[in-house]
Every structure is written in C-alpha cells, then in structure tokens.
Design a protein that fits this description.
- 35% of the residues lie in helices and 14% in strands.
- The protein has helices at 9-28, 65-68, 71-74, 91-99, 172-178, 182-185, 191-204, 222-235, 249-257, 265-271, 283-299; strands at residues 32-33, 50-52, 119-123, 126-127, 139-148, 154-161, 214-218, 245-248, 302-303, 308-309.
- Strands 3, 4, 5, 6, 7, 8 and 10 form a seven-stranded mixed sheet that branches.
- Strand 7, helix 8 (222-235) and strand 8 (245-248) form a beta-alpha-beta unit.
- The longest helix has 20 residues, at 9-28.
Length: 311
C-alpha cells in the first residue's frame, strides 16, 4: 500500500476517480490469495486460505481502460512521494505483495476491508476435566461474543455457567485450570436449558434471519467438532445447524501469518504483540482474546473465511 501527495489539482481529481472506481469494484469482487498448505492435515476444511483487499491486488482488466490510459501521464517521477510500508506481517503476505511488485508487507489499514459475514460469534467452552481425563466431559461455561463484521467490535454477549449432571462435582484439577469453583455451577441451567437460551438469544439478536450472515469462531476445532456434539449425543439432544460450520482461528492465523500457533491464544497474542486479556482457560476471557486477535488481523486486511464444518 502507498500513500501519495499530488502536485496538481488535475492529478488529484484523476486519482480520486481511479480510486473510487477501484473501491466500487473491490466491493463486488473478492481478490483472493491462494491458500497456504494446511499444517494440521484436517480433512474437514471446506474453505481455506486468506483474501486481501489491497490496491496492489487489483488487476488492470478490472479498471476501466480510459482511466488506465491516463496512469502513465499522471504517475510521473516527482508527481508523488511514496511512504514506506511496514514489514514483518508474515511470510505469506510478504510473498504475495512481492509477487505484485511490492517489497514490503501489508501495513495496518485505516479502515477495515469488508468481511464475508455480518457477524462473527466468538465461542470458547470450558468443560469438566481431570487427570486422567473423565468421560464424558461436560460443558461448564458457555460464552458467546457477537462481533460486528464491519467494525469488529463486540455488540452483545451471551454468557452462562452450566450445571454438569454426569459428574456434578468439579475436580480440584478442573478448578485450578479454569478458575471455576463449585458454587459457580451449582444451580445453573443444564446444557439442554442453555441451548434453548442460546437459540432465544440468537433470535433476539437477529442472527436467525436468513438474510443475516453469521458464523461461529473458535480457537481450535474441539469446541464444535467434538465437545458440543459429543455431549449432545450422550444426552440425546439435537445440535442446531448454526453450530455445524465455523472458523478455526488457529487456521486463520496460520494462513495470515505463515506459522502454526502451537500454544493457541498465547502464541497468537505473542506473534502479534498483543497483551493477553484476563485469565487463560476462562471461557469469557478466551473469547475476548479471540475477538482482539480477529480485530487486529482484520485491521491488517485479513478476510475471514469458514475453515471447518461438521456434517
């Protein structure tokens, strides 16, 4: 990306026309970067890779010829001064920018590029656990953050603790790991009741409207691929369709940055120089960290896409 300073009014007017046309076409065309190879070999991915909205990715064929014909006459030496872009956003983006004739990485953008979804629903379960592991595990914290896809700000929160029924007493290991004590789950709704409340919340927030595009986001595939469907199967409950496709933030991060976050949120925060929010393994705090990482990636031009699904 470059910044310019025009030396003549006509040149500025021309670039205004050019950039306006590019903006209109960027709204209608997704300029996609081919995906990086998957690092975890997961076969449930049905859409991978990343997309970037940047002027450098717009092909000449997408800009009207009458505007392109004027480029050589306007972009003359001395007519504009260019500002150096930041470096280090990741090898994949560096390579893509380099392939377009630019030497630097994509810097933070002044405004968010359009996302494919109106809302992102950030979710992170905490569940009963012990060493050795207990079976079945049961969800004991159920948080969801409704993230606006245009502003990447949190608009609404659903959060409740959940009463486990198979192993109603939390183990010392579980409390130490999650910070959830017995009094926080006693008397709370069961999973069946929580799922009903989630559906009511989704309806109240307009997320069940077919014209509204939303998708869940998790840190890993465990929450919606294993934990929720596994407990629902054990209890004889149906899994709502909106829980059957999601974005795995680990995969999205690896597509954008080029490295796999082995330690999840800790690695992602460190890799993007972000301060960790709250307590690790607190479901609601983990959601806040996920939202913060997503906002930072979106601010740098990353377009989030579905990575995972469960049939």
């Amino acid at each position: 990306m470059v910044l310019y300073r025009g030396s003549a009014g006509a040149e500025i007017l021309f670039l205004t026309d050019l950039l306006a046309e590019v903006a209109r076409r960027m709204e209608r065309n997704w300029v996609e970067v081919e995906p990086e190879p998957r690092q975890d070999g997961n076969a449930d991915v049905n859409a991978s890779g990343s997309s970037m909205h940047a002027l450098s990715h717009i092909r000449q064929a997408r800009i009207p010829p009458h505007l392109l014909q004027r480029v050589p006459g306007v972009l003359t030496p001395g007519a504009f001064s260019f500002c150096e872009v930041d470096s280090g956003f990741g090898p994949m983006l560096n390579r893509k920018m380099g392939s377009q004739g630019f030497g630097g990485a994509v810097p933070p953008m002044a405004a968010f590029p359009p996302q494919r979804y109106h809302y992102f629903l950030v979710l992170d379960f905490e569940a009963t656990c012990d060493k050795p592991q207990i079976h079945p595990q049961e969800i004991i914290e159920f948080p969801i953050l409704k993230l606006n896809g245009r502003t990447m700000e949190i608009e609404s929160t659903f959060h409740t603790y959940v009463q486990p029924v198979v192993h109603p007493q939390l183990t010392p290991f579980c409390t130490e790991l999650t910070g959830i004590i017995q009094e926080m789950v006693d008397g709370q709704p069961t999973l069946n009741q929580v799922l009903e409340r989630v559906d009511e919340w989704m309806g109240k927030e307009g997320l069940l409207d077919p014209s509204v595009k939303s998708i869940f986001v998790t840190c890993g595939d465990w929450d919606l691929k294993l934990m929720l469907p596994g407990q629902c199967e054990y209890l004889g409950l149906q899994v709502a369709d909106y829980f059957k496709q999601w974005i795995n933030l680990k995969k999205a991060y690896s597509f954008a940055i080029g490295t796999w976050p082995k330690n999840g949120l800790l690695d992602m925060n460190k890799g993007m120089s972000l301060q960790h929010i709250g307590r690790p393994h607190s479901g609601i705090d983990d959601c806040r960290n996920i939202a913060n990482i997503m906002k930072t990636l979106a601010h740098r031009g990353f377009i989030f896409k579905q990575t995972s699904r469960r049939i």
